[in-house]
């Protein structure tokens, strides 16, 4: 592989005009596609194989035309102090508001509070339910404006009015902190390279790659039903890995220049060595993201595949466009250790020169080298300290509670949250999470009796406040029953009630043949959480297993990939512990704008396992391949660890800081899921890069010695030789010239 990538790097350097033209053309094509694509429609949230989804599909079949997936709004009214909603003036205001709401072109129905028993027992709170023909993301702005105007007129009349439901659902935005993250990345790159030009290359190529990826997602959003969260996630991951991959190529290029090589040769060797690490690191990320398909949740699968596509683009750009831009930059990219004139380099009397002359000055050992020597001298102490520290950070993960966000998790400043609180005050906490029971009595001889039996059975269950009379369809073979729990939607008691209703439905089905199903947003959330929990272990085995095999090929070792996987488990558990501490317990939540604590998003554990594993293997591959390269070239195991840190520690540290900054930039998102993912990934990168890869990994390698690189002879013969270390290139150089076929390729 190193030889092939070496050829590709030299070819991209020489034919830079052609390479740049291709990528600019792709960016233009994706941009035109995004600009001309129709707006993204509704994003279907289907969970195949769950009872809630089965009930939803049954409703679509047996109750046609009811717009089961249409947006809803609850306009909640509260009377002024000392008054009631049944007072004549307040009642007239509400009825006027209901009439205005019913005039909307996209409104399917509006329920009057006074005819629908929607006034609280103390008479202070009432609500009107509005049903729309289209989903919240498809509602026209005029419809949303009409809803808000009607509420405002009722406020002007003296009532407190808030609006809940998904009718006012907005497209999430990431906030200005995303720009701050990119700015931090730019500063780190300048400090790392000591050159504005060299620092600008990773940023430029990453932005081009993300631009192509996000524009492509936008162009396909309508056809593939991709939600807005999909493009934000792709941007988050694509930007982070894009900067990192380009950073490693540019860094190796500068190191090759410092060793005295010509620029074209340096570009080829940078892509042949660091590029090999980029390919395998990118493969682990892609495997982790595409592997999300095993969960069998279409939305999660689409998010994973879209993000994986953006990562693949980042890899291709690092291998081709980075060397092409290095060709354009010419002497403006200095050898390692040299600084640009703007930053104080190349002053009169300086011995900082290029090429073969860049050997006069003997720099002192860098921090990475000194740290590696310290770890090699005291590996056991460093190992124990790292493991104990991550173990302590992981303790909160034992209290992990999973759920999906609802209006109760919104900031108190939003009208959705205030409506949620008013409904809880007037009708009880369970009113915000009603359960819909669908009774399919098509195979029963007495459907009406079955409906009554199911209703009576549910009334006798614990944690039930109210049960509405069965509402049959026109055919009389299917009915819906609404159940109001006594507990809030995200509580354990409500989850137990869902299971109790399903158990009772199983008994009725055994007696009558009628099927009882529970659906609704609360039941759907419960089913999603259970499905994700059930899929976590198979997903972990699949992703870690495939990546383990991949790393065996890369490192030609059994213990190094095993150590990498165990280190990943430590970092991901510690990161989950931090997420629980901040988003569930509320520790330091004010610092990142978490206004409301609650259960951790259901997909967070499995998503973090996938993404963090891929990113963790990035640093493992980049750092340890340098160590293996030194070991293969004859150094002793301890010295190979020090050499790996000498060449890689600063760059890996810079890459980790950049990735943390990019992820942390998404903490400013208005979408709670994006905020949690951004924080979780940022803290996971910190744990993995600076504790696992910088401390635990060298400590373990120092303790293992030569055993770390042991591989059974039969397996060594069976594995393909991918030559990540560039040994083939080194052998060719020692013969006094590059490979003939390489020279022939770059001439053509």
What does this structure look like?
It is a single chain. The chain has helices spanning 2-14, 16-36, 51-62, 88-102, 141-156, 177-193, 196-224, 228-258, 263-290, 298-329, 367-377, 379-394, 415-427, 447-459, 492-512, 521-555, 559-584, 604-632, 637-665, 672-704, 713-718, 727-734, 740-747; strands spanning 72-78, 107-111, 125-132, 160-165, 402-403, 435-440, 464-467, 471-472, 478-485, 515-519, 600-601. It is an alpha+beta fold and 748 residues long. The strands form 3 sheets. Strands 6, 7, 8, 9 and 10 form a 5-stranded antiparallel beta sheet that branches. A 4-stranded antiparallel beta sheet has the order 2-3-1-4, sandwiched between helices. Helix 6 packs antiparallel against helix 7 and helix 19 (637-665) runs antiparallel to helix 20. The longest helix has 35 residues, at 521-555. The radius of gyration is 30 Å and the shape is elongated. Mean pLDDT is 83; it is low at 346-361 and 731-748.
């Amino acid at each position: 592989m190193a030889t092939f990538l070496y050829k590709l790097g030299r070819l991209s350097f020489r034919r830079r005009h052609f390479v740049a033209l291709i990528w600019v053309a792709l960016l233009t094509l994706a941009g035109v596609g995004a600009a001309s694509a129709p707006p993204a429609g509704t994003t279907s949230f289907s969970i195949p194989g769950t009872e809630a989804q089965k009930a939803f599909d049954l409703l679509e079949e047996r109750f046609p035309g009811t717009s089961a997936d249409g947006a809803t709004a609850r306009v909640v009214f509260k009377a002024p102090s000392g008054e009631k909603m049944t007072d004549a003036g307040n009642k007239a205001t509400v009825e006027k508001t209901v009439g205005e709401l019913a005039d909307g072109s996209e409104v399917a129905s509006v329920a009057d509070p006074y005819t629908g028993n929607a006034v609280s027992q103390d008479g202070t709170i009432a609500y009107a339910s509005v049903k729309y023909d289209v989903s919240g993301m498809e509602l026209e702005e005029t419809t949303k404006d009409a809803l808000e105007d009607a509420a405002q007129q009722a406020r002007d009349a003296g009532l407190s009015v808030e609006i809940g439901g998904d009718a006012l659902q907005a497209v999430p935005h990431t906030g200005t902190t995303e720009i701050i993250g990119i700015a931090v990345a730019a500063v780190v790159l300048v400090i790392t390279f000591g050159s504005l030009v060299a620092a600008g290359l990773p940023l430029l190529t990453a932005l081009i790659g993300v631009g192509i990826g996000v524009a492509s997602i936008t162009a396909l959003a309508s056809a593939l039903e991709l939600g807005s969260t999909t493009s934000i996630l792709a941007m988050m991951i694509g930007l982070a890995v894009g900067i990192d991959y380009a950073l490693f190529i540019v860094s190796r290029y500068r190191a090759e220049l410092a060793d005295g090589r010509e620029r074209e040769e340096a570009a080829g060797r940078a892509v042949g060595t660091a590029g090999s690490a980029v390919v395998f690191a990118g493969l682990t990320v892609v495997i982790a993201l595409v592997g999300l398909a095993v969960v069998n949740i279409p939305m999660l699968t689409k998010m994973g595949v879209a993000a994986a596509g953006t990562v693949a683009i980042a890899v291709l750009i690092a291998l081709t466009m980075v060397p092409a831009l290095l060709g354009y930059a010419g002497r403006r990219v200095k050898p390692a250790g040299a600084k640009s004139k703007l930053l104080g380099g190349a002053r009169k009397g300086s011995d900082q020169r290029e090429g073969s002359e860049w050997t006069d000055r003997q720099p002192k050992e860098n921090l990475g080298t000194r740290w590696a020597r310290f770890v090699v001298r005291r590996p056991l102490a460093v190992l124990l300290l790292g493991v104990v520290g991550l173990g302590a950070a992981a303790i909160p993960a034992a209290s992990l509670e999973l759920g999906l966000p609802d209006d109760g998790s919104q900031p108190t400043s939003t009208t959705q949250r205030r409506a949620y609180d008013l409904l809880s005050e007037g009708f009880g906490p369970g009113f915000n999470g009603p359960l819909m029971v669908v009774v399919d009595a098509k195979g029963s001889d007495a459907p009406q009796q079955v409906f009554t039996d199911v209703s009576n059975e549910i009334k006798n269950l614990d944690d039930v406040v109210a049960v509405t009379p069965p509402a049959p369809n026109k055919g009389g073979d299917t009915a819906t029953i609404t159940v109001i729990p006594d507990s809030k939607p995200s509580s354990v008691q409500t989850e137990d009630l869902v299971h109790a209703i399903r158990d009772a439905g199983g008994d009725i089905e055994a007696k009558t043949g009628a099927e009882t199903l529970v659906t609704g947003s609360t039941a759907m959330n419960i089913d999603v959480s259970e499905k994700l929990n059930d899929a976590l272990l198979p997903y972990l085995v699949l992703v870690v297993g495939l990546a383990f095999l991949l790393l065996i090929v890369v490192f030609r070792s059994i213990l190094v990939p095993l150590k990498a996987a165990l280190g990943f488990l430590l970092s991901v558990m510690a990161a989950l512990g931090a997420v629980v501490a901040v988003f569930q317990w509320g520790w330091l939540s004010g610092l990142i704008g978490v206004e409301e604590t609650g259960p951790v998003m259901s997909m967070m554990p499995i998503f973090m396992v996938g993404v963090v594993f891929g990113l963790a293997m990035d640093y493992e591959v980049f750092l340890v391949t340098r160590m293996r390269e030194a070991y293969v070239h004859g150094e002793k195991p301890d010295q190979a660890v020090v050499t790996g840190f000498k060449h890689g520690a600063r760059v890996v540290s810079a890459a980790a800081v950049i990735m943390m900054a990019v992820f942390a930039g998404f903490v400013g998102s208005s979408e709670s899921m994006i905020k949690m993912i951004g924080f979780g990934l940022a803290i996971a990168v910190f744990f993995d890069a600076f504790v696992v890869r910088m401390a635990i990994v060298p400590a373990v390698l120092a303790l293992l010695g030569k055993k770390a690189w042991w591989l059974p002879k039969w397996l060594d013969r069976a594995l393909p030789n991918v030559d990540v270390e560039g040994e083939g290139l080194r052998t060719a150089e020692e013969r006094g010239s590059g490979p003939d076929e390489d020279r022939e390729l770059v001439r053509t």
